[in-house]
Design a protein that fits this description.
- This protein is mainly α and about 230 residues long.
- The chain folds into 3 domains: about 40 residues, no CATH class; about 90 residues, no CATH class; about 70 residues, Orthogonal Bundle (Arc Repressor Mutant), CATH 1.10.1220.
- The chain is about 35% helix and about 10% strand.
- It contains 7 helices and 6 strands; from the N terminus they run ααβαβαββααββα.
- The strands form 3 sheets. Strands 1-2 form a two-stranded parallel sheet.
- Helix 3 links the parallel strand 1 and strand 2.
- The structure holds 2-acetamido-2-deoxy-beta-D-glucopyranose.
- 2-acetamido-2-deoxy-beta-D-glucopyranose (NAG) binds next to helix 7.
Length: about 230
């Protein structure tokens, strides 16, 4: 429900601010994308991914110093960093395609999840959570495209919980404690939000900022929601 409100607000904002041909393009794009998403059936078996794939057909791509499986957040960063060394040849493999104009609208995240851009996994039936879901199974979207899940997760940024890192470290994974990984979070981040500088960096590639564009309608909407 919250999401639907947010989407209609978004469309309203787009209409008010821009009446150009671009708006019409996006109106058509959004309408068509939503229609397709509502019809889309998520795969129920991994066998469905093999359809149209000729398993005996082996192609020669040559030799590489590094083969990275999956161009999600981690794989893409790894490939970028390795490519800084000119002599390295790198093969980055990705099962999905690229983002398109529809998937680049963060507010449409729930519709992107009903598309080939999502592997389509569900949790096992839960005892204590997902109580409102069919069979008590939550959807666990995993991106199947360049950028991986970061391309379909509404551009939300959240770090893992310190206690998880510390627990992994205690279990014997040295250098995974919160204190150990923090410098890498800071190094990767280009933080535009008001945050404690002890925890945030400003010189990385990873832009973190408040949502935009800053529409006057947002505050009006929030004010209108106060009872
Ligand atoms: C929203 O409510 C606050 C507090 O009442 C008020 O100061 C502000 O002017 C309101 N903003 C808009 C855009 O209505």
């Amino acid at each position: 429900m919250n999401f639907l409100l947010a989407t209609s607000l978004y469309l309203l904002a787009a209409n008010v601010i821009n009446c150009s041909i671009t708006t019409q393009y996006y109106q058509r794009l959004i309408k068509q994308g939503i229609t397709e998403a509502l019809r889309y059936k998520l795969p129920t078996s991994n066998n469905e991914f093999k359809q149209g794939v000729e398993s005996n057909n082996i192609e020669e791509y040559g030799e590489f110093d590094f083969v990275i499986v999956g161009a999600g957040s981690a794989g893409s960063v790894l490939a970028t960093r390795l490519s800084e060394i000119d002599d390295f040849s790198i093969l980055l493999l990705e099962a999905g395609g690229e983002e398109d104009d529809f998937s680049q609208i963060p507010a449409l995240w729930s519709f992107n999840q009903f598309s080939e851009k999502n592997w389509g996994y569900y949790s096992t039936p839960q005892k204590q959570s997902c109580l409102g879901m069919n069979n008590r199974q939550c959807s666990v979207p995993r991106g199947k495209l360049l950028g991986g899940t970061s391309s379909i997760n509404t551009l939300m940024y959240s770090r893992g919980n310190c206690r998880d890192y510390d627990k992994w470290s205690q279990l014997g994974n040295c250098r995974w404690s919160c204190k150990d990984v923090l410098p890498y979070f800071k190094k990767s981040e280009n933080c535009q939000i008001r945050g404690d500088e002890n925890y945030h960096g400003k010189r990385g590639f990873w832009n973190v900022e408040y949502t935009g564009p800053d529409s006057p309608l947002f505050q009006i909407f929030l004010n209108g929601s106060v009872d």
